[in-house]
Amino acid sequence: MLKTIKPKNARTKRILKKREPKVEENVKTAIFVRGSTTSQVVNDALSDLCRLRRTNSINFTKKNNIHPFDDDTSLNFYCSKNDASLFVIGSHSKKRPHNLVFGRMFDGQLLDMIEVGIEKAITMSEIKSQKCSVGMKPLFIFNGDLFETSQVHKTFKNMMLDFFRGQNLESINISGLEYVISITATGSNVDSDSTASSTSDGKIFFRVYTIQMTKSGQKAPRIELEEMGPSYDFKLRRTKFAKEEVYKIATKVPKTLKPKKVKNIDVNEIGDKVGHIHVGRQDLGKLQTRKMKGLKRMTEDDQTEDWSRKKRKS
Amino acid sequence: MDVSAQLEAQKSKFKSINVEKQVSLQFDLGLLASFDTNALEENKLKTETDNYLKSYTRDGTQLLINEIFQLPLTSVQDVGVVVELPKIVTAIPREKPLPKPKPPTRWERFAKLKGIKKNKKSKLIYDEEKGEWVPRWGYKGANDDGSNEWLVPVPDNADPFEDQFTKLREAKKERISKNEARRRRNMDEAETGETQKLENKSKAGAKALKKTELHQQISVAKTSTASLGKFDKPIKGEPSNTKGVKRKFEPNIGDIQKEKEARLNILNKIIDKKGEVLNVRKAIAKNHQEN
């Protein structure tokens, strides 16, 4: 494990402060590692994915003997040293050709990872088209109901969203919506209990397109797509899911970020905003009303007294 | 004037932005994502994958863009049209655990107790002498503590031969060192959990501890007079402290009978039944033992 460093000057202090846990986190850094043997396909794939994620991604150029499913100590070391929490490891072997492992870290430990095999790949450079600007936030489209039903696909969806989402923004410029990543899943539902390779039919199509907006005569523009980026046909291989308790801690939302509940204000059926004011109990018998002397109840004696008094005055 | 025909003509110029879907899409606009659970045409996917995917994605993207354009739009100058995104719905795990709240420092605890609120001060302050806005502290700041003054008046009650400049400089150094000591003390307390200890003291578990502490303090206070508390008037109902009393003495004027008996007992012990004072046999044995 890395030893804790005590800052000796202001610069290292700033770096450490940047790396410590915060309520609103920084953008996740990703590392792209090559395994002990890689193929050209894998190399191209790693560099393309790195380009899609231009900022906050570190490309390891040398080959490392790393087997994430067997031993994760070296992986933990790389990630904590580079302050990264996402990784992609590419390798090639006879048993697992053109292999990519996508993974995430939490608190310096491995959270979960998914291994995919590349069946068909077209690199960005092969597709001659205009590329999007660097560092834009992509749009996501997930096609197929497997992303709602299958546990593996759900994890893959979560991982893809995490990988390519970029910065957390409150508002975005319309002209900044430049490209879309479309992930389509086909094949039969994968049961977590079945041990046989039931993903033999299952494929995931990974496509990236640039968006062209044209006038439509209405508020929203007409969309046309043009294939831009890398295009892959993935085949799901092994997966390692996160432990329940760890995942629960990792997805905990702090109280400050939870949306504030406004009390006493509702929206009724018509759509009007209605508010409740809670007034204390009132004793209606003691209410101050207008005094009308003529309505006062008087006895006969009083009446004569009054009259006599009036007479004396005048 | 019937404009509908012209409207129709205008509309037909542009391509439609409506998309028909069997099952409506789910959106997470904070992430700019849409989730489509409609069934895909398997054979089309197998035969003409790329074209089918492109057209299918185009439909999905169109719906997503329509949804985005429903959000509040504002026009910001020099930037263009900006859309406000809602919060993210899907639970994405963090990379690091939530930060633990820092324990309050000594001052923070005191301020909380007294109800003192922090007033945010502005960075720049108007300097009357210079006639411009200077930083309140720091480089070329206004609060110099007088350590760089060119003229220092000697106060009336001070020694005329004392160096006022060094006095100011020493005072500043002392202030700095005090501040540093306090800062380090706060850091150490934060590490060892001093505030947690103090907070725990207020809990029920330490109530018993406080009671014994209190008793100890009372006993210490009692014996802290000039005559170690011997001649203090005892308070009603207070248990007298019999600690440290080693010998018990009978009162001088008491029961005469008892006194007589006690003295005669002593005499009987010295002179045994046979009327002899010395037991020769025992004496020889003891002498033998000692030698």
UniProtKB/TrEMBL annotation, chain A:
It is found in: Nucleus, Nucleolus. Pfam families: Brix. SMART domains: Brix. One of its GO terms (biological process) is maturation of LSU-rRNA from tricistronic rRNA transcript (SSU-rRNA, 5.8S rRNA, LSU-rRNA). GO terms for molecular function: rRNA binding. InterPro entries: Brix (IPR007109), Rpf2 (IPR039770). Keywords: Nucleus. Residues 286-314 are annotated as: Disordered. Belongs to the RPF2 family. This is Ribosome production factor 2 homolog. It comes from Gigaspora margarita.
Automatic annotation (TrEMBL), chain B:
It comes from the Eukaryota. InterPro entries: Ribosom_reg. Keywords: Nucleus, Ribosome biogenesis. It is found in: Nucleus. Pfam families: RRS1. Residues 174-203, 229-252 are annotated as: Disordered. The keyword Signal does not apply. Its main location: nucleus. Belongs to the RRS1 family. Involved in ribosomal large subunit assembly. This is Ribosome biogenesis regulatory protein. It comes from Gigaspora margarita.
